[in-house]
Amino acid sequence: MTTPLVRIVDDDADARSSSSFFLSMMGLEIKEYESAQRFLDEDDMNRPGCIILDVRMPDMTGMELQVKLNQKNCRLPIIFLPSLVVDSGFIH
Question: DSSP code of 59?
Answer without folding.
Answer: S
